[in-house]
TrEMBL record:
GO molecular function: dihydroorotase activity; zinc ion binding
Name of the protein in its database record: Dihydroorotase
Pathway: Pyrimidine metabolism; UMP biosynthesis via de novo pathway; (S)-dihydroorotate from bicarbonate: step 3/3
Gene3D superfamilies listed in its UniProt record: Metal-dependent hydrolases
Claim: Zinc is one of the keywords in the record: yes
Binding site for substrate: 16-18, 42, 137, 221, 253, 265
Cofactors, names only: Zn(2+)
Binding sites annotated in the UniProt record for Zn(2+) 2: 100, 137, 175
Modified-residue entries (N6-carboxylysine), positions: 100
Domain Amidohydrolase-related per the UniProt entry, residue ranges: 12-304
GO BP term, pick one: 'de novo' pyrimidine nucleobase biosynthetic process
A family per Pfam: Amidohydro_1
Length: 350
């Protein structure tokens, strides 16, 4: 029986670090194990311009633990007034790694997102020309579309037509949650289409949120779907298909903001993500494919080198992790997978 597994140091291709006290509290949780992360730009106000991204990157670097080599990969928040020249310049100097499109109103802090795709075509064409990836929150916001159908409808009515219009645009369907999404991504060329899969969507289904009492800490967007969709995500993540890679979407909110009559969406998984993933891959009998999912497919899509350092997962007695981490403004509950985690992370080692 395998009880040690060494892999290239992983990266997180979808991460929320927030700002200020929250940033200082959550950044060490990711930087402990991950070498790089795509940093989501949905701050208040959002990270829209190259200058915003440079300032935010500096705040992240200042909040980083000493002697830690973590590298934030910055993104811009696409708005209908984003300037294509600013995006091009930011990409050319290596300041940004991607641009993020939020349909207006789809999720946390998405009010300045895109309502009309025609208004951002200039920017998207520039991105296609220079090979800069577009990350998509893939849900429609039409109020008459059921929340459980928003991703599938997005694929048919927004993503597929966009890809036909701009086949050269390198696109990531973020936090895919449905079989429909997995099937669509798998049918597209691997050089121009990828998808991130979160840790929590590999573990929970919608029953975790609603059966036996309402559990706000499992509420995130896109909302978890039925178990058959979760199983399609596990199959995709463990398949070895390079189109699928880890984006935790670790999305911290103060407990006070989640435990509300109208609570925020987001699961905070940075603290125990790798132990959770090892458990998922072990159960699927595919531990040997965890490295591809967490450490190799993402760099291949983003055309970045893989990390030089490695980490080792060691199986033993259940791993202890805090139920919540403290921030200056209060606790943030850590994702509870609902089962013990036996894989402990050692390293990174050089
Ligand atoms: N995933 C979430 O439920 N929430 C994210 C936003 C997002 O990724 O859609 C957040 O910023 O809190
Ligand atoms: Zn999102
Ligand atoms: Zn997110």
């Amino acid at each position: 029986m395998t009880d040690r597994l060494t892999l290239r140091q992983p990266d997180d291709w979808h991460l929320h670090l927030r700002d200020g006290d929250m940033l200082r509290a959550v950044l060490p949780e990711t930087a402990r194990h991950f070498a790089r992360a795509i940093i989501m730009p949905n701050l208040v106000p959002p990270v829209v311009t190259a200058a915003d991204a440079a300032d935010y990157r500096d705040r992240i670097m200042a909040a980083k633990p000493l002697n830690n080599g973590f590298k934030p990969l910055m993104t811009l928040y696409l708005t209908e007034t984003t300037d294509a020249k600013d995006v091009r310049a930011a990409a050319e100097i290596g300041l940004i790694t991607a641009v993020k499109l939020y349909p207006a109103g789809a999720t946390t802090n998405s009010a300045s997102g895109v309502r009309d795709l025609d208004k951002v075509m200039r920017v998207l064409e520039t991105m296609a020309q220079i090979g800069l990836p577009l990350c998509l929150h893939g849900e429609v916001t039409t109020p008459d579309v059921d929340i459980f159908d928003r991703e599938a409808v997005f694929i048919d009515t927004v993503l597929a037509p966009l890809r036909e219009r701009l086949p050269g645009l390198r696109t990531v369907l973020e936090h895919v949650t449905t079989r429909d999404g997995v099937d669509y991504v798998a049918s597209e060329p691997e050089d121009s289409m990828g998808a991130t899969i979160t840790t929590h969507h590999l573990i929970i289904d919608r029953n975790h949120i609603l059966a036996g009492g309402i559990r706000p800490h499992y509420y995130c967007l896109p909302v978890a779907k039925r178990a058959t969709h979760r199983d399609a995500l596990i199959a995709a993540a463990t398949s070895g298909d390079p189109r699928f890679f880890l984006g935790t979407d670790s999305a911290p909110h103060l407990d006070a903001a989640k435990l509300q009559p109208c609570g925020c969406a987001g699961c905070f998984t940075a603290t125990n993500t790798l132990s959770c993933l090892a458990e998922v891959f072990e159960r699927a009998g595919t531990l040997d494919r965890l490295e591809g999912f967490a450490s190799l497919h993402g760099p291949a899509f983003y055309k970045l080198p893989v990390n030089e350092r490695s980490i080792t997962l060691v199986k033993g007695a259940p791993v202890a992790y805090p139920a919540a981490i403290d921030t200056a403004e209060g606790p943030v509950t850590v994702f509870d997978p609902g089962f013990p985690l036996h894989w402990r992370v050692e390293g990174p080692q050089t």
